[in-house]
Specification:
This protein is of the alpha/beta class. Helices cover 42% and strands 20% of the residues. Strands 6-11-10-9-8-7 form a six-stranded parallel sheet. It has a four-stranded antiparallel sheet with strand order 3-5-1-12, covered by helices on one side. The longest helix has 29 residues. The protein starts with a helix and ends with a strand.
Length: 284
């Protein structure tokens, strides 16, 4: 992430909030054993194979605690890393290194885990036209970081939040009275530059969404055969998205369908962390 303005406006307050969660009044353990400033260095080590993501957040944690902290990195976001690999070193006040360690690693492990899991699924879609999308099923106050990690892993971002795009789901359709009414109201309310996506669960809903003029039709929790029939009905009149419990284990089932997009909440809500640690802290 190279946009420093974006970082300061959006990421910094969230990182500071995470630090405040971990340090309310003081780091009593560190202050017990380190009474004065002492310069030190600690190594950033990878403990399992994966895709690294979130190095800029990791670095920023220490900078926000002490601007004089220097992080030297030997890898960059998106790189494949190996178990035992030295990825960088952090130098600065030992008290800062100790107090920022957990928050910095929490971000880096979480983001790298998402990038690694996303990459494992995206690789299964190589050679097809289907793009892998994330969802809004993100950890509260972590969306900025988690959606960034999806992109690092080779996926694409669906809408960022409720202000970012129109997605008429089952309850919106129920509130409006029908797909036809919901699409008409959305077209009347929203700017003409906004695409309108409609979530459908049956073939009758597919027909209605096409006739209503939906730009994107999301085939939600349909069987393979039903999705195949739905795509025939749509016949290129709208973009297509497949959704509903899509995971690494079952995504290959949709490869022959030729949908434009497949969205998976699992990218952010089910990715395990990548094991990373800070080790060998010593004074310099």
């Amino acid at each position: 992430m190279n946009n420093q303005i974006t970082m300061k406006l959006n990421a910094d307050p969230l990182i500071i909030q995470a630090l405040k969660e971990d340090i309310t009044s003081e780091d009593i353990t560190t202050n017990s054993v380190m009474r004065d400033r002492t310069e030190g260095e600690v190594q950033l080590l990878c403990k399992e194979d994966g895709i690294i993501a979130g190095l800029w957040v990791f670095q920023r944690v220490f900078e926000l605690l002490d601007a004089s902290t220097v992080t030297t990195l030997y890898v960059k976001d998106g790189d494949a890393v190996k178990k035992g690999q030295l990825m960088g070193v952090v130098r600065g006040d030992i008290r800062v290194l100790l107090s920022g360690e957990r928050v910095a690693l929490n971000y880096l492990q979480r983001m790298s885990g998402i990038a690694t899991y996303t990459n494992s699924i995206a690789s299964l879609l190589k050679g097809s036209k289907t793009k892998l999308l994330d969802t809004r099923k993100t950890t509260p106050n972590m969306r900025l970081f988690e959606k960034y990690a999806v992109k690092v892993g080779g996926g694409y971002n669906h809408r960022y939040n409720l202000s970012d795009g129109i997605l008429l789901k089952d309850n919106h359709i129920g509130a409006a009275g029908s797909i036809t009414k919901a699409v008409a109201m959305a077209k009347e309310y929203a700017s003409f530059v906004r695409k309108i996506e409609v979530e459908v669960e049956t073939l009758d809903m597919v027909k209605e969404a096409v006739e209503a003029g939906a730009d994107i039709i999301m085939l939600d929790n349909m069987s393979h055969d039903m999705m195949k029939e739905a795509i025939k009905l749509i016949d290129g009149r709208a973009e297509t998205e497949c959704s509903g419990n899509v995971t690494k284990e079952n995504i290959e089932n949709i490869l022959d369908l030729g949908v434009d997009y497949v969205s998976s909440g699992a990218l952010t809500h089910s990715a395990p962390i990548l094991d990373i640690s800070l080790k060998n802290l010593h004074a310099i």
